[in-house]
Amino acid sequence: MARNMFTRTFDRRVRLLFKTLGFAALFGGVFGTYALWGANQETGYEPEQPIMFSHKVMAGTHEIECLYCHGNAEIGAHAGIPTVSECMKCHDEVKGRTAQSKERIAVLLEHWEEKKEIRWVKVHDLADFVYFNHSRHVAAGLDCTECHGDVKTMDRVKRVHSLKMGWCLDCHKQDPPEDAPPHQDTRAPIHCSACHR
Ligand code: HEC
Ligand code: HEC
Ligand code: HEC
Ligand code: HEC
Ligand code: HEC
Predict the structure, then answer these.
(1) Which of 19, 42, 101, 105 has its CA 20 to 30 A from that of 57?
(2) 108, exposed or middle or buried, with CB in 10 Å at 0-12, 13-18, 19+?
(3) What is the DSSP letter of 128?
(4) Which atom of ligand 2 is the closest one to the Cα of 84?
(5) Inside any domain, residue 38
(6) Is the CB of 16 under 6 A from ligand 3?
(7) What is the dihedral of CA 57, 61, 62, 64, to 10 degrees?
(8) Is residue 32 part of a domain?
(9) Gap between the Cα atoms of 53 and 37, Å rounded
(10) Phi-psi region of 163 (alpha: psi -120 to 50; beta: other; left: phi over 0)
(11) 187 CB less than 6 Å from ligand 5?
(12) Model pTM?
């Protein structure tokens, strides 16, 4: 009968095969979800900071220029974060009007009195094998919002783009605007060694 058509070894092998496939599907599913989850987290990444520093209040309501605090973006690779003593240029005087701002500024003053640096949590962090330079992008006329979103509406800075290679290349492959000055009438580099030196 059909039952006896296969030898016992064959039977065992078939069962082993199905078990292997089952495990593969399970692990595939778990790893797949993990990989996709990772990607989602990277774009929405919005870590809590040691001081509740609100760009919405500082850059939005009080209209302090991005470059006032991140001036290095114009001249160097890194935009830079102001030091405590740079904050104190204003906060020597400004202690806050509302209960909320008083409370938040008090944490800054504590750091100042104890001579402690503020350990800000990085929102954007490219792998070390990638070369990126702010000044070249700012000089090319790109606004901060193109890469960081509308930061002046954010209470807590959030990563709005993945910063993956595909994202950089999507922009680099675009044709320059019609009215681009002569030295920018080529596309941005897409050869590997531009970003991997
Ligand atoms: C008063 C100073 C100040 C001003 C003005 C300011 N920032 Fe910031 N910025 C900071 C500080 C402090 C941090 C670190 C804390 C944080 O991430 O919220 C920061 C963080 C950031 C980050 C995240 C850095 C990271 O970890 O990857 C971005 C992006 C940024 N600022 C963009 C902007 C833009 C765009 C503007 C203008 C709309 C602006 N900032 C205005 C002080 C300032
Ligand atoms: C150019 C002046 C200036 C600089 C520089 C500056 N601040 Fe402020 N900051 C202000 C003003 C103005 C307010 C509003 C105060 C109020 O609401 O009464 C404020 C408010 C705040 C608040 C409370 C905001 C809220 O959510 O209510 C915090 C926290 C704060 N600053 C932290 C910082 C830190 C940290 C730095 C340095 C990285 C910094 N500030 C640099 C001018 C400045
Ligand atoms: C072409 C895209 C692009 C533009 C335009 C851009 N940034 Fe960035 N920014 C990045 C990337 C990518 C990183 C992560 C760099 C790293 O991890 O080495 C970053 C990191 C930062 C950081 C945190 C770390 C650092 O570099 O010091 C700050 C603050 C920041 N940007 C502010 C700004 C401000 C302010 C502007 C506008 C003047 C601006 N950025 C314009 C892409 C951009
Ligand atoms: C929104 C558009 C845009 C995005 C996004 C962007 N770039 Fe660029 N990039 C440019 C333009 C425009 C230039 C040309 C600037 C010039 O000609 O001086 C450029 C030039 C460069 C250069 C050559 C100049 C230099 O600094 O050596 C490098 C390297 C570079 N980009 C790296 C990156 C990396 C890495 C990323 C992603 C993390 C990125 N860029 C994302 C627009 C962009
Ligand atoms: C415009 C900038 C840019 C150019 C040009 C570029 N890369 Fe990348 N590359 C990146 C960034 C950004 C990452 C992501 C780093 C991260 O995930 O933190 C990356 C990551 C990688 C990785 C790691 C795997 C991954 O996908 O995360 C490899 C491998 C790589 N690049 C190879 C290349 C090769 C080969 C070329 C040329 C065909 C190239 N890259 C051109 C910016 C660039």
Answers:
(1) 42
(2) buried
(3) T
(4) 37
(5) yes
(6) no
(7) 80
(8) yes
(9) 28
(10) left
(11) no
(12) 0.88
Give me the domain span that covers residue 10: 2-44
Which listed ligand is nearest to 151 at the C-alpha? Answer: 1
Is residue 157 included in any domain, yes or no?
Answer: no
Mutate to test the pocket of ligand 5, among 165, 170, 174 (most ligand atoms within 8 A of CB): 165
Per DSSP, the three-state class of 49 is coil
- For residue 82, the CA-to-ligand 1 centroid distance in Å is 9
Q: What is the domain count for the chain?
A: 1
| Residue at 97 is within a domain | no
Q: Which atom of ligand 4 is nearest to the CA of 163?
A: 38
**Ligand 2 neighbour 59 (Cβ under 6 A):** no
Strands (E), 54-149: none
Q: What is the pLDDT along the chain (197 residues), one digit of tens a residue?
A: 455 566 676 667 767 666 666 556 655 555 544 444 444 447 889 999 999 999 999 999 999 999 999 999 999 999 999 999 999 999 999 999 999 999 999 999 999 999 999 999 999 999 999 999 999 999 988 999 999 999 999 999 999 999 999 999 999 998 877 777 666 655 799 999 999 99
Contacts of 2 (CB under 8 A, 6+ apart): none
Q: Whose CA is nearest to atom 21 of ligand 1?
A: 157
Which amino acid residue places its CA nearest to atom 34 of ligand 1? 66
Q: Is 157 exposed, middle or buried (0-12, 13-18, 19+ CB in 10 A)?
A: buried
